Structure formats: structure tokens, C-alpha cells
From TrEMBL:
Residues 1-27 form the signal peptide. The gene is LOC116208710. It comes from Punica granatum. The lineage of its organism: Eukaryota, Viridiplantae, Streptophyta, Embryophyta, Tracheophyta. Keywords: Endoplasmic reticulum, Hydrolase, Manganese, Metal-binding, Purine metabolism, Signal. This is Ureidoglycolate hydrolase. Its cofactor is Mn(2+); Ni(2+); Co(2+). GO terms for biological process: allantoin catabolic process; purine nucleobase catabolic process; ureide catabolic process. GO terms for cellular component: endoplasmic reticulum. Gene3D superfamilies: 3.30.70.360, Zn peptidases (3.40.630.10). It is found in: Endoplasmic reticulum. Its EC number is 3.5.1.116.
Length: 472
């Protein structure tokens, strides 16, 4: 599917955009700008002074902020919160908005069967594997406007920065907007990138996946204009090596960069997440009539397992191992009734896959022994996903470092403890991530905030990194 706008509307957009950028960059000429020097080195062309009034390297920060603000208005909850759930009306409008901006940046736009959106700037050696960047724009209920969005709109702006500089990519550059990074609607995180990475398990699961309104994934996708053909979800799979590199720009979602006053985080690894669903079934009964020795309390089994999760995580001996019981439901949930059923959802992560898997084994052993001890039935112990961690590619780390240095920006190497689409892109492409500071590390809440100066720094680092990788 490609971008379709009436030509007249397109023209108006274009003129408005051109005027804005001329306004924003007029008078800009700084031959000592390290970015310009770098561009000259990378592109092999001198930076053309006759174009320097309209073709600046500077990020059009004002326009980028405007786009971030506009995108935030496509929300199902009032500002400052943002709620944008997969394949809802607001999600579809937001997708159209992104496709328009890609079109205005001169990218050729296409979409796959689940709505991953690709915008390509063709390089002068178009047969080489492209270099890609991107992130997501879906937003969990009552969250903020920067998570993911900075890595989509920022990447498109990085393309604009490179174009204005006169840079010519050798490998094509591609911007990707991933479908459903957040698990809100179908309980599957990184749905688009996971499928691109060729997950057979996900492909199978999507045939039967429904949301909490019993709307199937396929029907929801069709209502948004995707998955039109029978069985075409497999076409989303990418071959290993489809991209020469993938780089994602993202807010840190943690406090370190802001606290330490550092401009750029260079991610060396993404922690490996796993999630487990557990159900215990017990005898239930009247809270007064059933005496303590005769109980099979499914609620206490759940409570005991939650403490066991914490214990096994601590016993791993590593600060990088974490485990959380974020959901613990009891049935029938009445003060005078012994819980007859309990349901837990456990999230555990580590940068070391083996260590995390050992923790999962121990949690399983505990679930079995707790059930036995308490005379309840372990009705379900379902490992929903158990993903490997991802390491950033060394040459991409080097490219991000040298870009930061060229721009005279402070940087630090760090681990991403949240996961991102990059975790899955790492299965088909060398990968790297750039973090920027965000206010107090807040994320997934309306107070999420990043200074436009920090975003612009991230965009510049991304632009230079993409430029370097494109010429490799
Ligand atoms: C969900 O929809 C399917 C197919 O339309 C139907 O067979 C099933 O009974 C529904 N389940 C519930 C809980 O409504
Ligand atoms: C780089 O940054 C440092 C510290 O902010 C500053 O002192 C120095 O002048 C900058 N150098 C250049 C070339 O911009
Ligand atoms: Zn995100």
C-alpha cells in the first residue's frame, strides 16, 4: 500500500513544510559546525555554501516538537495522557499521519500485512542491504507522548537532516514504524518486529488470538486495512541479512542520563524478558466453616509463589536479574470465601539468558512443590514468551560513539533493561540503540517528557550514525 493524497493537498503540505524549514534555517551558516565537517567527510562532497541557507544540518526542532504534539492528539484519553491502541480508529489516523510525514521527507512508503510501515530513501547502490532505523507509536492507556514516537518522528527528521546536508546514501536508508510494540490489545509485545524476525510460534498464535472483546487479531487487522489475503502473515517475515544495520532512537525510560547530565546513552545489550502465567486451583469453601487444617487455599499458594519468585531472583546473585509478580488475581474474590482459584503473571528478565532460565526452572519447581504441600492443583504453568537477550553490534556501537564525539556530545555505554523492537530486529540484522535523557526517567505515564534539545541531539547522533553505516 503506498501513500495516497490528493495532489493539491500534497502540494499545500509541501509548500507549508518548505516555508517552515526555510524560516527555521534561514541565516544558518556555520562552517565550523562539527556536523557539517563530518557530513563533508562522509559524503565526499564539500558542503555547498550556495545551498547553506536552505540545506542546513540543523535539526528542525520546532517542527519536530510540533509533530510530536500533533501525534499526541490522536489519543483515546485526554491530554496530557496518550492512549493509542493497535488498529483502533486513533491508531489508524496516527498511521496515516506518519505515512504523510514519510512522504513529505521524500521516502517511498509501503506497508506489510500487519501494518509495519517502511519509508525508503534509495541509495546509489540500491542492491546493497539497507540501513534501517525506527520504533513504534502505539501507546499503552494513559501513557505519554515520547515513548517510541521519538524514534519514529526523530528518525524521519534524521533523514531530513541528511538530505539538507547534501548527503547521498550509498546503502538505502529505511525508516520503520513497527506495529504494536506494546502488548495492550492482544497481550503480545513487539508484535510487528517479532513477526518480522520470523517467529513461527507467533504466526501460529495469531490465528487464534482474540482481544478482550473477543475480536480476533485477523478481524482487527482487516478492519484497519491489513491482512487482506488469506494466510499472508508469513509474508511479514524478513530474511536474515535483510538489513545491514538497524539503529533505534528511544527515550531512556530510566533516570541515569538525566541524573548524570549525559546527552546520549549507547546501548550495548538489551535484557532478555520472559513471562509466565500460573493458575492454582484449590477446594475453596466458607471462610468460617472450613477449619484451617482442612483448607486447600489457592490464594496462599499464589502468595507463597510470589515470595518464591523474589527469593530465586535474589539467589541468582546478580543485580541484573529481576522478577516481578505484576498480576495476582483471586477467585471468587469475596471476603468470606477461601480462594478456590488464583492466577499470577510473572515477568522475569536478565542480560544473561541461562541465568534467567535457571530462575524460571526454580520458579517452576517451587510452583510444583507449593501445590503439593498445600493440596492445590497447579492447573497452568505457561511460559508465554522466553526471549533471548540481544547484544548490540560492535561496529554499530563504534559508529554511535564516533557520531557522539563528532558532535561533542557526552555519552555513556548502558544496558537497556526495558525491551524494544530492537530486541527482535537483532535476530535479522546487526543492531544498536541510542538513548536520550527523559524527565526523572518517567515513562508509561502522562508526565513522560524529554527536552527538545535532548531529542535533537539524539536525532543528530542518529543521522551521523546512519550516514556512516550507509557508506560501509
Ligand atoms: C468468541 O467468538 C468465537 C467466534 O466468533 C465464538 O465461537 C466464541 O464462542 C466467542 N467466545 C466468547 C467467550 O464469546
Ligand atoms: C566541546 O564541549 C566542551 C564541554 O562542553 C567545550 O568546552 C568545548 O569547547 C566543545 N568543543 C567544541 C569543538 O565544540
Ligand atoms: Zn518504546
Amino acid at each position: 500500500m503506498s501513500l495516497k493524497l490528493p495532489p493539491s493537498l500534497m502540494l499545500i503540505f509541501y509548500v507549508v513544510l518548505s516555508l517552515c524549514s526555510i524560516y527555521a534555517v534561514s541565516g544558518y551558516k556555520d562552517v565550523d559546525d562539527p556536523a557539517i565537517r563530518t557530513m563533508e567527510e562522509f559524503s565526499g562532497y564539500p558542503f555547498d555554501e550556495t545551498h547553506s541557507n536552505t540545506q542546513s544540518l540543523s535539526v528542525d526542532a520546532e517542527n519536530l516538537q510540533k509533530q510530536i504534539d500533533e501525534l499526541a492528539t490522536f489519543s483515546d484519553t485526554p491530554a496530557p495522557s496518550v492512549t493509542r491502541v493497535l488498529y483502533t480508529e486513533k491508531d489508524v489516523i496516527a498511521r496515516r499521519y506518519i505515512k504523510n510525514i514519510m512522504g513529505l521527507a521524500g521516502l517511498s512508503v509501503r506497508e506489510d500485512a500487519v501494518g509495519n510501515i517502511f519509508g525508503r530513501w534509495e541509495g546509489y547502490e540500491p542492491d546493497l542491504a539497507p540501513v534501517a532505523s525506527g520504533s513504534h507509536i502505539d501507546a499503552i492507556p494513559y501513557s505519554g507522548k515520547y515513548d517510541g514516537v521519538v524514534g519514529v518522528l526523530g528518525a524521519i527528521e534524521a533523514i531530513n537532516v541528511l538530505r539538507r546536508s547534501g548527503f547521498k546514501p550509498k546503502r538505502s536508508l529505511e525508516i520503520i514504524m513497527f506495529t504494536s510494540e506494546e502488548p495492550t490489545r492482544f497481550g503480545i509485545s513487539c508484535l510487528g518486529s517479532r513477526l518480522m524476525a520470523g517467529s513461527e510460534m507467533l504466526l501460529k498464535a495469531l490465528e487464534t488470538t482474540v482481544d478482550n472483546q473477543n475480536i480476533s487479531f485477523i478481524d482487527a487487522a482487516r478492519s484497519a486495512g491489513y491482512a487482506q489475503e488469506e494466510n499472508d502473515l508469513r509474508s511479514v517475515f524478513l530474511k536474515k541479512g535483510s538489513y545491514a544495520a538497524f539503529v533505534e532512537l528511544h527515550i531512556e525510560q530510566g533516570p541515569l542520563l538525566e541524573e548524570e547530565g549525559i546527552s546520549v546513552g549507547i546501548v550495548t545489550a538489551i535484557a532478555a524478558p520472559a513471562s509466565i502465567k500460573v493458575d492454582f486451583k484449590g477446594g475453596g469453601g466458607h471462610a468460617g466453616a472450613v477449619l484451617m487444617p482442612h483448607r486447600n487455599d489457592a490464594g496462599l499458594a499464589a502468595a507463597e509463589l510470589a515470595l518464591a519468585v523474589e527469593k530465586h531472583v535474589f539467589d541468582s546473585g546478580s543485580i541484573d536479574t529481576v522478577g516481578t509478580v505484576g498480576i495476582l488475581d483471586l477467585h471468587p474474590r469475596a471476603i468470606n470465601s477461601i480462594p478456590s482459584k488464583s492466577h499470577l503473571e510473572i515477568d522475569t528478565r536478565d542480560i544473561d539468558e541461562e541465568r534467567r532460565n535457571k530462575v524460571i526452572e526454580k520458579i517452576h519447581e517451587s510452583a510444583v512443590s507449593i501445590a503439593k504441600k498445600r493440596g492445590v492443583r497447579l492447573a497452568e504453568f505457561n511460559i508465554i514468551n522466553q526471549d533471548p537477550p540481544a547484544l548490540s553490534d560492535v561496529s554499530i556501537i563504534e559508529a554511535m560513539k564516533s557520531a557522539s564525539k563528532e558532535l561533542n556530545l557526552t555519552h555513556k555505554l548502558m544496558i537497556s533493561r526495558a525491551y524494544h523492537d530492537s530486541l527482535f530486529m537483532a535476530r535479522v540484522s546487526p543492531m544498536g540503540m541510542i538513548f536520550i535523557p527523559c524527565f526523572k526517567g518517567y515513562s508509561h505515564r502522562p508526565e513522560e517528557f524529554s527536552l527538545i534539545e535532548d531529542i535533537s541531539n539524539g536525532v543528530k547522533v542518529l543521522a551521523l550514525t546512519l550516514a556512516q553505516l550507509s557508506l560501509k
